[in-house]
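S1.2 Input.
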Amino acid sequence: MEKQPAGSDEQTHAIAFHRYPESFAAARKRNRQLLFIAGPTNSGKTYAAFRELMGATHGIYLAPLRLMAAEFWDRLKSEGISCSLVTGEERIIDPQARYISSTIEMLAPEADHDVAVIDEVQMIADKDRGWAWTQAIVGVNARRVILVGSADSEPVVRALAERLGESLEIVRTERLTPLEVASHPYHPKQRLEAGTAVISFSRRDVLHWKQTLGGADCAAIYGALSPEVRRNESRRFASGEARAVSATDAIGMGLNLPVKTIVFTTLEKWDGTEEITLSDSAIRQIAGRAGRYGMHESGVVTAMDWDDLKKIQHALHMPPKSLPVVAPIAPHLAMLRVLSAQSGRRDLVSLLEEFAALPEEEGLFRKADVSAMRELASMIAEIRLPLESQFTLCVCPIDIKEKRHVRQWLHWVDSVAERIPSPLPHCRFYSPEGATSSSEKLYYAEAQVRLLAAYRWMHHRLPLLFPDADEAAAVSHETNAFISNSLRLRVGKNCGTCGKPLRSNSRGAQCGRCYRLQFAEEEDE
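S1.3 Output.
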Protein backbone atom coordinates (compact mmCIF):
# COMPACT_ATOMS: atom_id res chain seq x y z
CA MET A 1 0.00 0.00 0.00
CA GLU A 2 1.30 3.44 -0.89
CA LYS A 3 2.26 5.61 2.06
CA GLN A 4 -0.20 8.44 2.51
CA PRO A 5 1.36 11.87 2.14
CA ALA A 6 1.53 14.20 5.12
CA GLY A 7 -1.43 16.52 5.21
CA SER A 8 -3.83 14.04 3.59
CA ASP A 9 -7.49 14.22 4.56
CA GLU A 10 -7.44 11.07 6.68
CA GLN A 11 -4.46 12.19 8.74
CA THR A 12 -5.67 15.77 9.04
CA HIS A 13 -9.08 14.61 10.20
CA ALA A 14 -7.52 12.36 12.82
CA ILE A 15 -5.97 15.33 14.59
CA ALA A 16 -8.25 18.22 13.64
CA PHE A 17 -10.06 19.38 16.74
CA HIS A 18 -13.50 19.32 15.15
CA ARG A 19 -12.93 15.62 14.35
CA TYR A 20 -11.99 14.68 17.91
CA PRO A 21 -15.24 12.73 18.56
CA GLU A 22 -14.55 10.44 15.61
CA SER A 23 -11.41 9.17 17.34
CA PHE A 24 -13.74 7.25 19.71
CA ALA A 25 -15.14 4.77 17.22
CA ALA A 26 -17.00 2.54 19.70
CA ALA A 27 -18.97 5.43 21.20
CA ARG A 28 -19.84 6.81 17.77
CA LYS A 29 -21.34 3.47 16.71
CA ARG A 30 -23.75 3.52 19.68
CA ASN A 31 -27.03 5.36 19.57
CA ARG A 32 -26.20 6.99 22.91
CA GLN A 33 -28.74 8.83 25.06
CA LEU A 34 -27.46 11.60 27.32
CA LEU A 35 -29.10 12.55 30.62
CA PHE A 36 -27.85 15.56 32.58
CA ILE A 37 -28.96 15.70 36.22
CA ALA A 38 -28.19 19.30 37.15
CA GLY A 39 -28.44 20.88 40.54
CA PRO A 40 -26.67 22.21 43.61
CA THR A 41 -24.94 20.09 46.23
CA ASN A 42 -27.21 18.20 48.64
CA SER A 43 -29.98 17.97 46.04
CA GLY A 44 -30.01 14.19 45.57
CA LYS A 45 -28.71 14.24 41.99
CA THR A 46 -25.96 11.65 42.54
CA TYR A 47 -28.40 9.39 44.39
CA ALA A 48 -30.78 9.59 41.42
CA ALA A 49 -27.95 8.70 39.02
CA PHE A 50 -26.92 5.73 41.15
CA ARG A 51 -30.48 4.40 41.23
CA GLU A 52 -30.60 4.39 37.45
CA LEU A 53 -27.15 2.81 37.23
CA MET A 54 -28.21 0.01 39.59
CA GLY A 55 -31.15 -0.77 37.30
CA ALA A 56 -28.81 -1.34 34.36
CA THR A 57 -27.62 -4.75 33.21
CA HIS A 58 -24.03 -3.54 33.60
CA GLY A 59 -22.39 -0.15 33.98
CA ILE A 60 -19.62 2.11 35.17
CA TYR A 61 -19.31 4.99 37.65
CA LEU A 62 -16.59 7.54 36.79
CA ALA A 63 -15.48 9.58 39.80
CA PRO A 64 -13.18 12.61 40.11
CA LEU A 65 -11.42 11.14 43.17
CA ARG A 66 -10.19 7.69 44.09
CA LEU A 67 -11.89 8.24 47.46
CA MET A 68 -15.27 8.65 45.77
CA ALA A 69 -14.72 5.63 43.53
CA ALA A 70 -13.85 3.56 46.61
CA GLU A 71 -16.90 4.90 48.46
CA PHE A 72 -19.27 3.69 45.72
CA TRP A 73 -17.40 0.37 45.55
CA ASP A 74 -17.78 -0.01 49.34
CA ARG A 75 -21.47 0.84 49.15
CA LEU A 76 -22.16 -1.88 46.60
CA LYS A 77 -20.09 -4.46 48.46
CA SER A 78 -21.97 -3.70 51.71
CA GLU A 79 -25.23 -4.41 49.85
CA GLY A 80 -23.88 -7.73 48.55
CA ILE A 81 -23.49 -6.44 44.97
CA SER A 82 -20.29 -7.39 43.18
CA CYS A 83 -18.30 -4.48 41.76
CA SER A 84 -14.78 -3.95 40.42
CA LEU A 85 -12.58 -1.03 41.48
CA VAL A 86 -10.22 0.54 38.94
CA THR A 87 -7.90 3.42 39.83
CA GLY A 88 -4.41 4.40 38.77
CA GLU A 89 -2.69 2.37 41.47
CA GLU A 90 -5.28 -0.26 42.28
CA ARG A 91 -7.29 -2.77 40.31
CA ILE A 92 -9.62 -5.06 42.20
CA ILE A 93 -11.34 -6.99 39.46
CA ASP A 94 -14.29 -9.28 40.14
CA PRO A 95 -14.92 -11.38 36.99
CA GLN A 96 -18.58 -11.75 38.01
CA ALA A 97 -19.13 -8.03 38.62
CA ARG A 98 -21.76 -6.20 36.61
CA TYR A 99 -20.46 -2.81 37.71
CA ILE A 100 -17.17 -0.93 37.72
CA SER A 101 -16.27 2.00 39.96
CA SER A 102 -13.41 3.94 38.46
CA THR A 103 -11.52 7.21 38.53
CA ILE A 104 -12.32 9.20 35.41
CA GLU A 105 -8.80 9.18 33.94
CA MET A 106 -8.87 5.36 33.89
CA LEU A 107 -11.73 5.13 31.39
CA ALA A 108 -11.22 2.48 28.71
CA PRO A 109 -13.22 3.92 25.77
CA GLU A 110 -13.47 0.58 23.98
CA ALA A 111 -15.15 -1.22 26.93
CA ASP A 112 -18.88 -1.77 26.52
CA HIS A 113 -21.38 -0.53 29.16
CA ASP A 114 -25.13 -0.32 29.37
CA VAL A 115 -25.15 2.80 31.58
CA ALA A 116 -22.31 5.15 32.53
CA VAL A 117 -22.42 7.81 35.26
CA ILE A 118 -19.97 10.72 34.97
CA ASP A 119 -19.84 12.65 38.25
CA GLU A 120 -18.95 16.31 38.93
CA VAL A 121 -19.25 17.22 35.25
CA GLN A 122 -18.46 20.89 35.98
CA MET A 123 -14.84 19.72 36.38
CA ILE A 124 -14.62 19.98 32.59
CA ALA A 125 -13.59 23.58 33.27
CA ASP A 126 -10.58 22.50 35.37
CA LYS A 127 -7.38 23.68 33.69
CA ASP A 128 -5.38 20.56 34.62
CA ARG A 129 -7.89 17.72 34.47
CA GLY A 130 -10.78 19.01 32.36
CA TRP A 131 -9.63 16.92 29.36
CA ALA A 132 -10.62 13.74 31.27
CA TRP A 133 -14.27 14.91 31.44
CA THR A 134 -14.25 15.80 27.74
CA GLN A 135 -12.82 12.36 26.96
CA ALA A 136 -15.41 10.60 29.13
CA ILE A 137 -18.42 12.55 27.83
CA VAL A 138 -17.36 12.14 24.21
CA GLY A 139 -15.79 8.70 24.42
CA VAL A 140 -17.52 6.43 26.96
CA ASN A 141 -19.06 3.48 25.14
CA ALA A 142 -22.50 3.24 26.80
CA ARG A 143 -26.11 3.13 25.68
CA ARG A 144 -27.08 5.73 28.30
CA VAL A 145 -24.68 8.34 29.67
CA ILE A 146 -25.73 10.12 32.86
CA LEU A 147 -23.93 13.37 33.61
CA VAL A 148 -24.12 14.70 37.16
CA GLY A 149 -23.08 18.22 38.11
CA SER A 150 -23.90 21.83 38.83
CA ALA A 151 -26.30 23.79 36.67
CA ASP A 152 -23.60 26.20 35.50
CA SER A 153 -22.23 23.48 33.21
CA GLU A 154 -25.49 23.17 31.23
CA PRO A 155 -24.33 25.29 28.23
CA VAL A 156 -21.19 23.21 27.62
CA VAL A 157 -23.17 19.96 28.08
CA ARG A 158 -25.75 21.18 25.53
CA ALA A 159 -22.98 22.15 23.11
CA LEU A 160 -21.37 18.71 23.39
CA ALA A 161 -24.69 16.92 22.84
CA GLU A 162 -25.37 19.05 19.78
CA ARG A 163 -21.88 18.46 18.40
CA LEU A 164 -22.23 14.69 18.92
CA GLY A 165 -25.73 14.62 17.43
CA GLU A 166 -27.06 12.79 20.48
CA SER A 167 -30.31 13.27 22.35
CA LEU A 168 -30.06 15.15 25.66
CA GLU A 169 -32.55 15.08 28.53
CA ILE A 170 -32.06 17.52 31.41
CA VAL A 171 -33.45 16.92 34.90
CA ARG A 172 -33.04 19.74 37.42
CA THR A 173 -32.88 19.13 41.15
CA GLU A 174 -33.32 21.49 44.10
CA ARG A 175 -31.44 21.53 47.38
CA LEU A 176 -33.05 19.29 49.99
CA THR A 177 -31.96 21.22 53.10
CA PRO A 178 -31.75 25.01 53.57
CA LEU A 179 -28.32 26.64 53.62
CA GLU A 180 -27.80 29.63 55.91
CA VAL A 181 -24.99 32.17 56.04
CA ALA A 182 -23.91 32.85 59.62
CA SER A 183 -24.70 36.30 61.01
CA HIS A 184 -21.09 36.83 62.11
CA PRO A 185 -17.63 35.42 61.36
CA TYR A 186 -16.21 32.47 63.24
CA HIS A 187 -13.57 33.35 65.83
CA PRO A 188 -10.69 30.85 66.24
CA LYS A 189 -11.09 30.95 70.03
CA GLN A 190 -14.59 29.52 69.75
CA ARG A 191 -14.89 25.78 70.31
CA LEU A 192 -15.76 23.99 67.09
CA GLU A 193 -19.22 22.53 66.94
CA ALA A 194 -19.46 18.83 66.14
CA GLY A 195 -19.84 18.35 62.39
CA THR A 196 -17.74 21.39 61.41
CA ALA A 197 -15.47 21.39 58.35
CA VAL A 198 -12.74 24.07 58.32
CA ILE A 199 -11.66 24.79 54.74
CA SER A 200 -8.24 26.05 53.61
CA PHE A 201 -6.22 25.49 50.46
CA SER A 202 -2.79 24.05 51.28
CA ARG A 203 -1.28 21.23 53.31
CA ARG A 204 0.43 23.77 55.56
CA ASP A 205 -2.82 25.57 56.35
CA VAL A 206 -4.84 22.38 56.85
CA LEU A 207 -2.33 21.16 59.44
CA HIS A 208 -2.11 24.60 61.03
CA TRP A 209 -5.86 24.83 61.54
CA LYS A 210 -6.06 21.22 62.68
CA GLN A 211 -3.55 22.01 65.41
CA THR A 212 -4.97 25.42 66.27
CA LEU A 213 -8.63 24.44 66.41
CA GLY A 214 -8.80 20.83 67.40
CA GLY A 215 -5.55 18.90 67.61
CA ALA A 216 -6.33 15.21 68.04
CA ASP A 217 -10.06 16.02 68.06
CA CYS A 218 -9.85 17.26 64.46
CA ALA A 219 -9.41 15.06 61.39
CA ALA A 220 -7.42 16.26 58.36
CA ILE A 221 -8.01 15.77 54.63
CA TYR A 222 -5.68 17.22 51.99
CA GLY A 223 -4.30 16.26 48.59
CA ALA A 224 -0.87 15.00 49.69
CA LEU A 225 -2.50 12.26 51.75
CA SER A 226 -2.99 8.89 50.13
CA PRO A 227 -6.59 7.84 49.39
CA GLU A 228 -6.37 5.26 52.20
CA VAL A 229 -5.47 7.88 54.82
CA ARG A 230 -8.08 10.32 53.53
CA ARG A 231 -10.59 7.53 53.80
CA ASN A 232 -9.56 6.80 57.42
CA GLU A 233 -9.78 10.49 58.30
CA SER A 234 -13.22 10.67 56.66
CA ARG A 235 -14.35 7.72 58.77
CA ARG A 236 -13.03 9.37 61.96
CA PHE A 237 -15.12 12.43 61.22
CA ALA A 238 -18.19 10.51 60.06
CA SER A 239 -18.18 8.32 63.18
CA GLY A 240 -17.83 11.27 65.55
CA GLU A 241 -14.40 10.17 66.77
CA ALA A 242 -13.19 13.55 65.47
CA ARG A 243 -15.60 16.44 66.14
CA ALA A 244 -14.32 18.47 63.20
CA VAL A 245 -12.30 18.12 60.02
CA SER A 246 -9.69 20.50 58.61
CA ALA A 247 -9.76 20.03 54.84
CA THR A 248 -8.96 21.44 51.44
CA ASP A 249 -11.56 22.06 48.77
CA ALA A 250 -11.49 18.33 47.91
CA ILE A 251 -14.44 18.25 50.29
CA GLY A 252 -16.43 20.09 47.62
CA MET A 253 -16.11 17.19 45.17
CA GLY A 254 -18.85 15.07 46.65
CA LEU A 255 -17.12 13.41 49.59
CA ASN A 256 -19.82 11.70 51.61
CA LEU A 257 -19.32 13.50 54.95
CA PRO A 258 -21.90 14.47 57.61
CA VAL A 259 -20.98 18.17 57.59
CA LYS A 260 -23.27 20.61 59.38
CA THR A 261 -21.11 23.76 59.26
CA ILE A 262 -18.52 24.97 56.75
CA VAL A 263 -15.92 27.53 57.91
CA PHE A 264 -13.79 29.17 55.21
CA THR A 265 -10.42 30.24 56.66
CA THR A 266 -9.76 32.19 53.44
CA LEU A 267 -11.19 32.69 49.97
CA GLU A 268 -7.73 32.95 48.39
CA LYS A 269 -6.14 29.96 46.68
CA TRP A 270 -2.87 29.29 44.84
CA ASP A 271 -3.80 27.82 41.45
CA GLY A 272 -0.27 26.69 40.55
CA THR A 273 0.58 29.99 38.88
CA GLU A 274 -0.84 32.76 41.01
CA GLU A 275 -2.98 33.54 44.03
CA ILE A 276 -6.63 33.72 42.98
CA THR A 277 -9.94 34.47 44.70
CA LEU A 278 -12.42 31.61 44.64
CA SER A 279 -15.14 31.98 42.04
CA ASP A 280 -18.77 32.22 43.12
CA SER A 281 -19.27 28.75 41.65
CA ALA A 282 -16.44 27.26 43.75
CA ILE A 283 -17.78 28.96 46.90
CA ARG A 284 -21.25 27.53 46.26
CA GLN A 285 -19.84 24.06 45.56
CA ILE A 286 -17.87 23.94 48.83
CA ALA A 287 -20.45 25.75 50.98
CA GLY A 288 -23.15 23.42 49.69
CA ARG A 289 -21.57 20.50 51.56
CA ALA A 290 -22.98 21.96 54.78
CA GLY A 291 -26.26 20.48 55.99
CA ARG A 292 -26.00 16.91 54.79
CA TYR A 293 -29.49 15.69 53.89
CA GLY A 294 -30.78 13.02 56.26
CA MET A 295 -28.32 14.04 58.99
CA HIS A 296 -28.92 17.76 59.54
CA GLU A 297 -32.02 19.92 59.15
CA SER A 298 -30.01 22.79 57.70
CA GLY A 299 -26.47 23.82 56.84
CA VAL A 300 -24.46 26.82 57.99
CA VAL A 301 -21.55 28.50 56.23
CA THR A 302 -19.27 31.17 57.63
CA ALA A 303 -15.78 32.68 57.34
CA MET A 304 -13.12 34.12 59.63
CA ASP A 305 -13.54 37.77 58.70
CA TRP A 306 -16.33 40.11 57.64
CA ASP A 307 -15.04 40.70 54.11
CA ASP A 308 -15.04 36.98 53.27
CA LEU A 309 -18.43 36.53 54.90
CA LYS A 310 -19.87 39.24 52.65
CA LYS A 311 -18.34 37.58 49.57
CA ILE A 312 -19.92 34.27 50.58
CA GLN A 313 -23.33 35.93 51.04
CA HIS A 314 -22.97 37.48 47.58
CA ALA A 315 -21.92 34.17 45.97
CA LEU A 316 -24.83 32.22 47.46
CA HIS A 317 -27.42 34.77 46.40
CA MET A 318 -26.14 35.32 42.87
CA PRO A 319 -27.64 33.23 40.04
CA PRO A 320 -25.11 30.71 38.71
CA LYS A 321 -22.83 32.09 36.01
CA SER A 322 -22.42 29.63 33.14
CA LEU A 323 -19.09 27.94 32.59
CA PRO A 324 -17.27 28.73 29.32
CA VAL A 325 -18.52 26.62 26.41
CA VAL A 326 -15.13 24.98 26.05
CA ALA A 327 -14.16 21.29 26.12
CA PRO A 328 -10.39 20.81 26.58
CA ILE A 329 -8.72 17.86 24.85
CA ALA A 330 -5.37 16.20 25.50
CA PRO A 331 -3.62 14.07 22.89
CA HIS A 332 -4.26 10.35 23.18
CA LEU A 333 -2.00 7.72 21.67
CA ALA A 334 -3.83 7.45 18.33
CA MET A 335 -3.51 11.19 17.81
CA LEU A 336 0.21 11.07 18.63
CA ARG A 337 0.72 8.25 16.12
CA VAL A 338 -0.81 10.41 13.39
CA LEU A 339 1.40 13.35 14.36
CA SER A 340 4.39 11.00 14.23
CA ALA A 341 3.44 9.78 10.74
CA GLN A 342 3.08 13.36 9.52
CA SER A 343 6.26 14.77 11.03
CA GLY A 344 8.51 11.73 10.91
CA ARG A 345 9.39 12.37 14.58
CA ARG A 346 9.18 9.58 17.13
CA ASP A 347 10.19 11.33 20.34
CA LEU A 348 7.26 12.33 22.51
CA VAL A 349 8.55 15.79 23.39
CA SER A 350 8.57 16.79 19.70
CA LEU A 351 5.10 15.36 19.17
CA LEU A 352 3.74 17.26 22.14
CA GLU A 353 5.26 20.41 20.72
CA GLU A 354 3.55 19.58 17.41
CA PHE A 355 0.27 19.19 19.31
CA ALA A 356 0.77 22.51 21.12
CA ALA A 357 1.44 24.22 17.77
CA LEU A 358 -1.69 22.88 16.04
CA PRO A 359 -3.94 25.76 14.96
CA GLU A 360 -7.14 26.08 16.94
CA GLU A 361 -10.41 26.90 15.27
CA GLU A 362 -12.98 28.93 17.10
CA GLY A 363 -15.28 26.30 18.49
CA LEU A 364 -16.02 23.87 21.25
CA PHE A 365 -12.79 21.86 21.48
CA ARG A 366 -9.59 23.49 22.72
CA LYS A 367 -6.09 22.23 23.48
CA ALA A 368 -5.38 21.27 27.08
CA ASP A 369 -2.14 22.30 28.75
CA VAL A 370 0.33 19.40 28.31
CA SER A 371 3.37 21.17 29.80
CA ALA A 372 3.75 18.70 32.69
CA MET A 373 3.86 15.74 30.30
CA ARG A 374 6.24 17.66 28.06
CA GLU A 375 8.60 18.31 30.99
CA LEU A 376 8.97 14.57 31.60
CA ALA A 377 9.21 13.82 27.88
CA SER A 378 12.11 16.28 27.53
CA MET A 379 14.11 14.26 30.06
CA ILE A 380 13.99 11.13 27.92
CA ALA A 381 14.04 12.63 24.42
CA GLU A 382 17.44 11.10 23.62
CA ILE A 383 16.50 7.58 24.76
CA ARG A 384 15.28 5.28 21.99
CA LEU A 385 11.92 3.97 23.13
CA PRO A 386 8.74 3.09 21.24
CA LEU A 387 6.19 5.88 21.30
CA GLU A 388 3.82 3.74 23.39
CA SER A 389 6.49 3.30 26.09
CA GLN A 390 7.31 7.01 26.12
CA PHE A 391 3.63 7.86 26.51
CA THR A 392 3.16 5.34 29.34
CA LEU A 393 6.17 6.70 31.23
CA CYS A 394 5.18 10.33 30.79
CA VAL A 395 1.62 9.94 32.05
CA CYS A 396 2.87 8.11 35.15
CA PRO A 397 1.67 10.10 38.21
CA ILE A 398 5.17 10.94 39.40
CA ASP A 399 5.67 13.93 41.70
CA ILE A 400 8.00 16.09 39.61
CA LYS A 401 8.52 18.48 42.53
CA GLU A 402 10.30 15.73 44.47
CA LYS A 403 13.89 15.24 43.25
CA ARG A 404 14.06 11.71 44.65
CA HIS A 405 10.92 10.78 42.75
CA VAL A 406 12.31 12.12 39.47
CA ARG A 407 15.59 10.23 40.00
CA GLN A 408 13.63 7.05 40.66
CA TRP A 409 11.48 7.64 37.60
CA LEU A 410 14.63 7.96 35.45
CA HIS A 411 15.72 4.54 36.78
CA TRP A 412 12.33 3.21 35.67
CA VAL A 413 12.92 4.70 32.23
CA ASP A 414 16.21 2.76 32.02
CA SER A 415 14.45 -0.42 33.12
CA VAL A 416 11.86 -0.04 30.35
CA ALA A 417 14.54 0.80 27.76
CA GLU A 418 16.71 -2.17 28.72
CA ARG A 419 13.78 -4.51 29.49
CA ILE A 420 15.21 -5.22 32.95
CA PRO A 421 12.76 -5.64 35.86
CA SER A 422 12.79 -2.77 38.34
CA PRO A 423 12.54 -3.73 42.01
CA LEU A 424 10.66 -1.82 44.65
CA PRO A 425 12.33 1.55 45.41
CA HIS A 426 14.33 1.73 48.63
CA CYS A 427 11.88 2.72 51.37
CA ARG A 428 12.18 3.98 54.90
CA PHE A 429 10.38 1.85 57.48
CA TYR A 430 7.60 3.67 59.31
CA SER A 431 6.16 1.74 62.21
CA PRO A 432 2.45 2.36 62.82
CA GLU A 433 3.26 2.41 66.54
CA GLY A 434 5.87 5.14 66.02
CA ALA A 435 3.44 7.97 65.34
CA THR A 436 5.05 11.39 65.25
CA SER A 437 4.06 15.00 65.90
CA SER A 438 6.74 16.14 63.44
CA SER A 439 5.33 17.73 60.31
CA GLU A 440 8.65 17.02 58.57
CA LYS A 441 8.51 13.24 59.17
CA LEU A 442 4.87 13.24 58.13
CA TYR A 443 5.82 15.04 54.91
CA TYR A 444 8.43 12.42 53.95
CA ALA A 445 6.07 9.56 54.79
CA GLU A 446 3.43 11.08 52.50
CA ALA A 447 6.02 11.45 49.73
CA GLN A 448 7.01 7.78 50.11
CA VAL A 449 3.40 6.65 49.69
CA ARG A 450 3.08 8.72 46.50
CA LEU A 451 6.24 7.12 45.08
CA LEU A 452 4.93 3.64 45.87
CA ALA A 453 1.61 4.56 44.24
CA ALA A 454 3.50 5.51 41.06
CA TYR A 455 5.33 2.15 41.16
CA ARG A 456 2.00 0.32 41.45
CA TRP A 457 0.68 2.41 38.56
CA MET A 458 3.61 1.24 36.43
CA HIS A 459 2.99 -2.37 37.50
CA HIS A 460 -0.54 -2.29 36.10
CA ARG A 461 0.83 -1.26 32.71
CA LEU A 462 4.11 -3.23 32.62
CA PRO A 463 3.72 -6.02 35.20
CA LEU A 464 6.82 -7.98 34.15
CA LEU A 465 9.08 -4.95 34.48
CA PHE A 466 7.54 -3.74 37.76
CA PRO A 467 6.82 -7.01 39.54
CA ASP A 468 6.80 -6.01 43.23
CA ALA A 469 3.30 -4.55 43.44
CA ASP A 470 2.28 -6.69 46.42
CA GLU A 471 5.32 -5.56 48.39
CA ALA A 472 4.63 -1.95 47.39
CA ALA A 473 1.07 -2.31 48.66
CA ALA A 474 2.29 -3.80 51.96
CA VAL A 475 4.83 -1.01 52.56
CA SER A 476 2.20 1.58 51.63
CA HIS A 477 -0.19 0.03 54.14
CA GLU A 478 2.36 0.29 56.96
CA THR A 479 3.31 3.85 56.02
CA ASN A 480 -0.33 4.88 55.76
CA ALA A 481 -0.98 3.45 59.23
CA PHE A 482 1.93 5.56 60.52
CA ILE A 483 0.45 8.67 58.87
CA SER A 484 -3.06 7.94 60.17
CA ASN A 485 -1.80 7.48 63.71
CA SER A 486 0.31 10.63 63.43
CA LEU A 487 -2.70 12.69 62.35
CA ARG A 488 -4.38 11.73 65.59
CA LEU A 489 -1.65 13.70 67.36
CA ARG A 490 -0.91 17.39 67.22
CA VAL A 491 1.37 17.87 64.25
CA GLY A 492 4.38 20.17 64.13
CA LYS A 493 4.63 23.58 62.52
CA ASN A 494 5.80 24.78 59.13
CA CYS A 495 8.05 27.61 57.99
CA GLY A 496 6.04 30.83 58.03
CA THR A 497 7.70 31.97 54.78
CA CYS A 498 7.95 29.02 52.40
CA GLY A 499 5.70 26.48 54.17
CA LYS A 500 8.37 23.77 54.38
CA PRO A 501 7.96 21.56 57.47
CA LEU A 502 10.20 22.67 60.34
CA ARG A 503 12.26 20.20 62.33
CA SER A 504 10.70 19.04 65.58
CA ASN A 505 13.43 20.82 67.59
CA SER A 506 13.11 24.12 65.66
CA ARG A 507 12.59 27.14 67.91
CA GLY A 508 12.02 29.76 65.21
CA ALA A 509 9.14 30.44 62.86
CA GLN A 510 11.26 30.04 59.71
CA CYS A 511 13.41 27.33 58.16
CA GLY A 512 17.16 27.98 58.07
CA ARG A 513 17.18 28.87 54.37
CA CYS A 514 14.44 31.51 54.66
CA TYR A 515 16.03 32.95 57.79
CA ARG A 516 19.40 33.30 56.03
CA LEU A 517 17.79 34.86 52.95
CA GLN A 518 15.91 37.37 55.10
CA PHE A 519 19.09 38.17 57.05
CA ALA A 520 21.02 38.70 53.80
CA GLU A 521 18.31 41.02 52.44
CA GLU A 522 18.37 43.08 55.64
CA GLU A 523 22.15 43.41 55.39
CA ASP A 524 21.87 44.56 51.75
CA GLU A 525 19.45 47.25 52.80
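S1.4 Remarks. The chain has 18 helices and 18 strands.
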